[in-house]
Amino acid sequence: MSHTPLPTSTLPSYLQADKLGPWGIYLQQIDRVEPYLGHLARWVDTLRRPKRALIVDVPIQLDNGTIHHFEGYRVQHNTSRGPGKGGVRFHQDVTLSEVMALAAWMSVKNAAVNVPYGGAKGGIRVDPKTLSMGELERMTRRYTSEIGIIIGPTKDIPAPDVNTNEQIMAWMMDTYSMNEGATATGVVTGKPVDLGGSLGRRDATGRGVFTVGVEAAQRIGLDVASARIAVQGFGNVGGVAGRLFAEAGARVVAVQDHGGAIFREAGLDVPALLVHVGKAGSVAGFAHAEAIARDAFWDVDCDILIPAALEQQITETNASRIKAKMIIEGANGPTTPAADDILHERNILVLPDVIANAGGVTVSYFEWVQDFSSYFWSEDEINARLVRIMKEAFAAIWQVAQDNKVSLRTATFIVACKRILHARELRGLYP
Ligand code: GLU
Q1: Where in the chain is the domain with CATH 3.40.50.720?
Q2: Global pTM?
Q3: Atom of ligand 1 nearest to the CA of 160
Q4: Averaged pLDDT for residues 238-247
Q5: pLDDT interval class at 10 (50, 70, 90)
Q6: 198, 234, 164, 189: which is closest to 86 by C-alpha?
Q7: Which among 98, 187, 364 is the best mutation to test ligand 1's pocket, defined by most ligand atoms within 8 Å of the CB?
Q8: Is the peptide bond before 431 cis (omega within 30 degrees of 0)?
Q9: How far apart are CA 55 and CA 73, in angstroms?
Q10: One of 109, 121, 191, 325 is an active-site residue; which one?
């Protein structure tokens, strides 16, 4: 009996849409790693689609008595190496394809630092600044209940991301626990320390950014203690990284965020700026600095640039203006592939998101382990373990980049995708 061969599996249309958005960027990154996967390339299409994507309606009653429907998502990109893991983002621009990309980058990131997780991400399309505290809590709880059918301490573990914090994790943990009838601290990470959270989690992403930054600087002969730093986004990632670089003697000369951009040649007073951002919600209006146009930020003379805000900030239109010797991606997906090529040609070293900002999820892993064992480590212990994992992972990736003469992004994808696809191969297809 002869069989008509099946057409090669093409991507469903919803996976092809939005080619230029974050998901399109991720697909290009997979195209770039494919030639380096050897016999595992047979499995690579696994990475070109999410395992599971859930869209949920999140209706709540607003304070004014009307009913409002938000759209929420939870995407599990891959679970070959362990449960899904990744943050939840509340932002007015969140879309399904963006969450798919963020989930996929979590798969790569978790494999890059070798924590035993797959990749997942969630989000709600909302500007949380427009909500009262009560509305924010109701929305968070309803969203958690809706995604409750696919999350859980051994299935998929959410965490903070853009515009979500410890309080939101506490509400998520409580909602899931109420539905389960048992307190399940391990269902989310990034919780308050008094509720099963881990010491050191809040600073972990910024600490990881700083750690790989110092490692890379040593390798290219850049002196951190005399470096000029420019930071985009001064929240949980950029703020902490900026503080740690300043403590190491570097000068943070420029910061840009959603509200504006500021500059000070002699270096900004970072602790004072953090206090200002805590009150004002933005760097704009900081008294001890010169206000500059938001776009002028990209022209600032600096040695290290840290994009720590959102995706697609460094593009072909501004990549040629950047003066830094090194870029450390605190954000997820801040650089487009076209910009990557320009930076590579200009000999600007890019430390990619999938290793540079992996410190957060690494300490999330510590938090989850501590929750399971109900035994908690000291902050020094956490930081020491974090630094060790980041340094070892970075050294291995650096070597792969040298051996294959590829960018650090492609090198990180080589290491991570091989781990994921090797696990996939060992598990085999079911049925
Ligand atoms: N949202 C963070 C990230 O993008 C942390 C995720 C986590 O801790 O699970 O890596």
Answers
A1: 202-356
A2: 0.96
A3: 1
A4: 98
A5: low
A6: 189
A7: 364
A8: yes
A9: 5
A10: 121
